[in-house]
Recover the amino acids of this structure.
């Protein structure tokens, strides 16, 4: 194995800065998998039904999550929406809410109440800048934006909007979430230190061919070309602190994946850290990376410290994990105790690197 | 409706120069849908299991098809394979077999016995040139051909191979099957009159966004960008006799579409002609075509006469069809009488233009 040098490596607990934990029985199923994946801090997306648009809803949601797993820190977000005013931002900041997530209208799961135009939110962004809150951008233009906008071009087509927001609000901390393209990586690099990007683990593995014909590999933004995957892999091990892990782990009921029109989302939560190591190993195997690219420092930066540093948060528990090459077999399916919810994980049935808690 | 002028239009029966009729119960289910779609002549693909590599197998298959539907002409093909020799070509020609289909190894349904290298078949192509048989090319490079070959680039990456075959065998009649890209259309136009291309009806409708998340819209080659769709639509109504209909209608059991790793193929057979008119109407609605582009002559060329002219065959029955705007609702699902086979048609449940036999 290309990365056997990492067997037994001790690292700080990982932070996963982009997770979907859903509602109800699904939440109860997926929250306990966070620590299994080597993670003790997550940034929680607000695209519930209805979306999390009030401080009260966010705090209730956080309380419910915390009850399910007291040993994870849940950083909470609001869903950018016409009801979000500068006043709401001030309250949110005071209540300890970390960010505001912007979904362009109609691009992914539960985005039907998303943003049609950013201009109306400029006063909100100004307030966020003052309050030092993070703007989390789902960076895709919707298909309605132009006849040549496709799932393949939607992210690159969004980059001018992203760069314009950074230019207008240079002190606003912005995260371009789940980057999937070389163009997005390049754009982020041109920005100042207030801008960062999350990279998922599944986009380190996949290209368009992987989701062509496989519902469990289909997500938004879609995985793109080999050249895009190479750019993501290189960014992840570049040592540039603006790139860090946000798995965008997005569980869907198996029945909505094995369907005539199926949901977008890849579920990686239970093996978040192990899969990152697997992805680097695959990339070494194909010559995209070398074993020398994947050092303790790079891994720690990408999975553990860069995200926390950008958000300005620490691991108060000061926990450590250990990587194990003789890892785990990924479950074929996860079932809730009452059997009402089933989720198919990414790379089901495959071996992955394991994680032990110190 | 943009094309109401076509309501009641009489045309020759259509020819569908690329169909998959499968084996067994599936054959019994789909063969009766050919005439329903306004078609009385089809070119039959040989990718059965095992593939049709002998004259005897092809003739047995033809007899079975003919028994199921005596009022359709079945033009037969062999599967290009190491067992196909110049001798086999001479026998095939003598037996009335029309073409030889080349599948690159591993690119689509039942292509695991496909071609690894074309050079070994040069003597076969020479014999086909002499015997005036048609070479039907599945025009995609397999992923193994290069690290940047994807389902999106595989067709364009094949074009040099296609052009090289035409250059080496200028008198060999070649059809670049199911073109999906502007690049393929351009390449075909640069060739001499021995080269033609089929265009499916589903590629006149779809782009990548349509199969992202929908197994019933997923096929190989995959639908690509809006610019590619525009090129296909314009070629179809260009009046250039080298472009004609081959639906590539490819039925799969519903269970292999609603699956964790699902089959490539779109089933359009029962409404082949109606869907072509629908596609042109959709293109007029989006401004890609005008109503003036879609004339009786263009429709007749694309659906009825260009294909027959290229293959040098006539409709001995001299049948006529009539287009009806007040068409039919496409079935949600087709079931064999014993219920053992189910197929989901393209645009299930939608309205389509209808066809009446004169």
């Amino acid at each position: 194995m290309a990365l056997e040098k990492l067997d037994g490596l001790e690292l700080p607990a990982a932070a996963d800065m982009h997770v979907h934990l859903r509602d109800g029985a699904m939440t109860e199923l997926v929250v306990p998998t966070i620590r299994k994946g080597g993670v003790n801090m997550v940034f929680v997306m607000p695209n519930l039904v209805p979306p999390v648009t009030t401080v009260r809803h966010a705090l209730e949601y956080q309380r419910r999550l915390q009850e399910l797993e007291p040993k994870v820190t849940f950083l909470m977000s609001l869903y950018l929406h016409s009801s979000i005013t500068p006043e709401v931002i001030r309250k949110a900041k005071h209540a300890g809410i970390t960010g505001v997530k912007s979904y362009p209208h109609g691009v992914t799961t539960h985005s039907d109440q998303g943003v049609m135009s950013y201009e109306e939110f400029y006063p909100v962004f100004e307030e966020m800048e003052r309050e030092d809150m993070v703007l989390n951008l789902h960076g895709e233009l919707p298909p309605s934006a132009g006849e040549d906008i496709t799932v393949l071009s939607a992210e690159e087509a969004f980059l001018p909007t992203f760069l314009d927001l950074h230019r207008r609000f240079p002190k606003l901390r912005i995260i371009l979430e789940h980057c999937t393209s070389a163009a997005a990586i390049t754009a982020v690099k041109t920005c100042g230190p207030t801008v960062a990007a999350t990279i998922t683990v599944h986009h380190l593995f996949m290209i368009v061919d992987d989701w062509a014909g496989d519902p469990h590999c289909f997500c938004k933004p879609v995985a793109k070309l080999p050249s895009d995957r190479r750019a993501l892999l290189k960014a992840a091990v570049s040592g540039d602190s603006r790139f860090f892990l946000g798995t965008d782990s997005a569980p869907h009921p198996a029945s909505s994946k094995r369907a005539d029109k199926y949901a977008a989302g890849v579920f990686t939560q239970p093996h978040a850290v192990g899969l990152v190591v697997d992805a680097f190993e695959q990339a070494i195997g194909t010559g995209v990376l070398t074993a020398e690219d994947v050092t303790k420092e790079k891994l720690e930066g990408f999975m553990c410290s860069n995200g926390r540093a950008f958000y300005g948060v620490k691991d108060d528990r000061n926990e450590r994990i250990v990587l194990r090459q003789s890892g785990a077999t990924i479950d074929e399916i996860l079932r809730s105790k009452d059997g009402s919810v089933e989720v198919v994980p990414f790379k089901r049935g495959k071996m992955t690197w394991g994680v032990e808690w110190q």
Notes: Chain A has a mean pLDDT of 96. Chain A has one domain: 14-318. Residues 14-318 of chain A form a domain with the TIM Barrel fold (CATH 3.20.20.140).
